[in-house]
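Pilot study result, target chain (224 residues):
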Amino acid sequence: MPTVDSVSSFSASTGVGPFTWAHTCSGADRLLRVTTSHYDSSDSVTDITYNGVALTAVPGGATTNGQYWITAYYLIAPDVGTYNIVVTVSGNVFDFGAGAISYNDVHQTVPFGTAVTATGTDTTPTVTVSSAADELVDDGLVIIHGGTLSVGAGQTQRWNAITTTGFIKYAGSTEVGAASTTMSWSNSSSQTWAIVAVPIKPTVGAPATSIVPHQAYYRRRRAA
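Predicted structure:
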């Protein structure tokens, strides 16, 4: 099963970026996942890098709810060490928040399953993904700041913060996968939100030890 290596998050107020923060990656069979959240009517993320290497948007891992944007990105085998994540946006965003999780023991050619997004305006941001018991599911949430936000049962909160300007909250969590995994949050007041969840796949395990035919033959000869 994938394991969490390290977590980082970042917040900014109104600005054109680039938005920069440090993140550390270590271990084997690595994957870096970054989720960006912002409030804006038209501007979007145009580029995101780790140690100068571009991340790729997770297919199906982006959505908007009115002016509230959330997008999932990934990088297979990020460099080991502490380096900057740099996010470039197309214009002047009003509020920006992001979280990063680096993983170990992740499949290096098919690192994730099908991403799922959802939007709404209520007190219970929720999304359900198809996954498996040997996977780990992570999610990212953007929601208008108002009330108190709490992570759902069975999930491990990785970040839960208010942007510098204070208009939106951004949050993220992980949960051990199942055939169907629900990622949920509870907010004490009804607000507009958008959420994305991504199932992370484990690395291919080493094959079970076996005896090739000629070895089996000579072992039988010795035992006779």
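One observation from the pilot: DSSP finds one helix and 17 strands in the chain. A full batch analysis is planned for the follow-on phase.
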